Every structure is written in C-alpha cells, then in structure tokens.
Known about the structure:
- This protein is α+β, with helices and mostly antiparallel strands.
- It has a single domain, classed as 3-Layer(aba) Sandwich (Glutaredoxin), CATH 3.40.30.
- It is 30% helix and 29% strand.
- A five-stranded mixed beta sheet has the order 1-3-2-4-5, covered by helices on one side.
- The longest helix has 18 residues.
- 25% of the residues are buried.
- The N terminus is likely disordered.
Amino acid sequence: MYRVVPIKHGDRASTATHRFRLYIAGESVNSKLAFSHLKAFCEIYYADDYHIEQLDVLLSPEIAWEQGVTATPMLLRLTPAPPIKLMGSLSDAEQLLNSLGPINA
C-alpha cells in the first residue's frame, strides 16, 4: 500500500483548476525542497485554485514502476491537460512557469 498525502487548499480542492501529484522518496532533502518550492509557486500564481498530493514511492515501489516514476522528486501536472512531468527540486520558478503554462484568470 502506498501513502498519498493530499494537501488541500481552499474550499475548491476537489475542483481545483491546477492539480498536481508530487512523487517523493520519504523525507529526503530533495523531496522536502520540491514540495516547498511547488507550494510557494502555487500560492503566488494559482492562489486558492490548486491541489497538491504527495505520493511516497518508498512505501510502494511497484506503484512507482507502474506509473513510470524513475526518479524522485517528480512532479506530474494532472490538470489542466496535457499532463506534464518535471523532475528535481523545482527551485527555478521561471522554469516552472514556462513548463506549466499560462495562468488561468
């Protein structure tokens, strides 16, 4: 069984425009940094219109394999389409903005 930790923001978490899954490896430094950077980015650019869930691949490596996770941390943008994967600590806000696309008004 794997652990999914939903991080909900605002009352619209289940209907958020910007939904992300962050694959992490336990309490590693890079996993913590990636979450921290993603959360800060979302707070600035998406206000209350985002939802982040974390999936710890150490608790279930078979799920990571099935979902194509080859390294952590890895971010998967679930919505808006198309899905986008990013690797690393997510420390470059400009790269995040360019990769994740325009902000919905």
